[in-house]
Design brief:
This protein is α/β, with parallel strands linked by helices and about 400 residues long. The chain is built from 19 helices and 6 strands. Bound molecules: adenosine-5'-triphosphate.
């Protein structure tokens, strides 16, 4: 197995790191790539008031997740658990002890590569791993990398690979921290990492979470979910705004409800239950068991308590999974946008899409009926609120008082 190791401070991880990782994966034909955030970097003094090791690990995890290669790309906290200084030679020895047959490749940019001979035990490093390097700025000279590669081969018997990144992102974490403190630099960050920075008030980014612009609200939401769900949240936002325009609802409210609707989707059940208790939300037996039903309630709580959404947006998020009788326009819009946003693909979705713009009630009713049918087929209990929503909409259709 060919394992790439990408060490760094990742304070914070940025698009330069990701561009290099993505290309090295392909160029070296790696089976796995592991980001390894350093604990106390031997060659760097961390600025005071910066992210903690745990926060750097969590940000690196978000960045790595954004590569959308969960089988191949991982993050390891192995250096963070170690006391004292963090040495690459120790990391490689530890990895070899776990799997002696693994072919290790250490990935590094120009700055690191040109000083490799000065690292702690460079002969151990080059014995245990090949070194893959790349220019990280437009002004870095590939010739200098090749000269250094020759030198390391002669002096230490190193195996080296110099690769040319097709896309250089000319930024460093140091520069990025300066930019962020001035309210700039977001374009160098994966949105989820930017959201994490906002939520934790890192690097001098101190925004009022209750009054975030849309871009920042999105970033915060994406930092709370796995990257594979982001496309769905984006699709829901797009659809909810379009439906709000069609049906004369408040587009900005529809947008904010959609951005936040799944923000607690990945919380553990215990965390979800604790939040419901803390907010006095009564739960029936089914909700106590089905974690899928809880995220709507906890998502609504977070949206209001943390991000300051209005009560009608809170309600739309609260009911987006089950629906209920007497839904408001905004509640119907989020419910159906979540159901049929452009990334959804299941038999009948086209009919829902068409109905949603022709007769919103009929679309929600069709959504309720599909959910009930699906639950029945899978032998799962149907939540009474969905049945009540269906019955309410059927009565409305038949001109009866619900
Ligand atoms: P700092 O400003 O603190 O030096 P950094 O941006 O260099 O931070 P590190 O976490 O120290 O980030 O770097 C980890 C690794 O990523 C190093 O091997 C470094 O050369 C490489 N690297 C950093 N920035 C880039 C970039 N923009 N493109 C490609 N590689 C990069």
């Amino acid at each position: 197995m060919k394992l790439g190791i990408y060490g760094g401070t990742f304070n914070p991880p940025h698009l330069g790191h990701l561009a290099a990782a993505r290309f090295a994966l392909e160029a070296l034909e790696l089976d796995e790539l592991r980001f390894v955030p350093a604990a106390a970097p031997p060659h760097k003094v961390l600025p005071s008031g910066t992210a903690t090791a745990q926060q750097r690990l969590e940000m690196t995890d978000l960045a790595a997740d954004g590569l959308l290669l969960p089988q191949k790309v991982h993050v390891s906290g192995m250096e963070l658990g170690r006391s004292g200084k963090s040495y690459t030679a120790d990391t490689l020895e530890q990895l070899k002890a776990v799997d002696a047959s693994a072919e290790l490749w250490l990935l590094m940019g120009t700055d690191m590569f040109l000083t490799l001979q000065n690292w702690h035990e460079p002969e151990v490093i080059t014995r245990l791993a090949g070194i893959c390097t790349f220019a990280r700025t437009h002004s870095d000279s590939v010739e200098a990398l090749n000269i250094q590669a020759d030198y390391l081969q002669k002096a230490l018997g190193a195996r080296t690979r110099v690769i040319e990144l097709p896309h250089i992102v000319d930024v460093s974490s140091t520069r990025l921290r300066e930019l962020l403190a001035r309210g700039e630099g977001q374009e160098y960050l994966p949105p989820a990492v930017y959201g994490y920075i906002i939520r934790h008030g890192l690097y001098g980014v101190h925004l009022d979470l209750k009054h975030l612009p849309d871009r920042e609200l999105r970033a915060c939401s994406y930092s709370m979910i796995r990257a594979k769900r982001i496309a769905h949240v984006q699709g829901t936002e797009e659809e909810a705004v379009r439906l709000a325009r069609r049906w004369g609802a408040d587009q900005e409210k529809a947008r904010r409800a959609a951005i936040l609707h799944d923000c607690t989707k990945y919380w553990e059940k215990d965390e979800q239950l604790a939040m419901c208790r803390a907010h006095g939300i009564p739960l029936d037996d089914l909700e106590q068991q089905a974690v899928k039903l809880l995220h709507a309630k906890t998502g609504a709580c977070v949206a209001r308590a943390v991000y300051g959404v209005s009560d009608d947006v809170y309600e739309a998020i609260f009911w987006h999974t089950t629906g209920k009788a007497n839904m408001s326009l905004l509640e119907k819009i989020l419910y159906i946008a979540d159901y049929m946003e452009p990334n959804r693909d299941f038999p009948g979705v086209e009919r829902l899409r068409e109905l949603a713009y022709r007769d919103l009630d009929q679309a929600v009713l069709a959504g309720n009926e599909m959910s009930i049918q699906e639950m029945k087929e899978r032998g799962l209990p149907v939540h009474p609120n969905t049945v009540q929503s269906r019955d309410w909409l059927r009565s409305k259709r038949n001109g009866k008082e619900p």
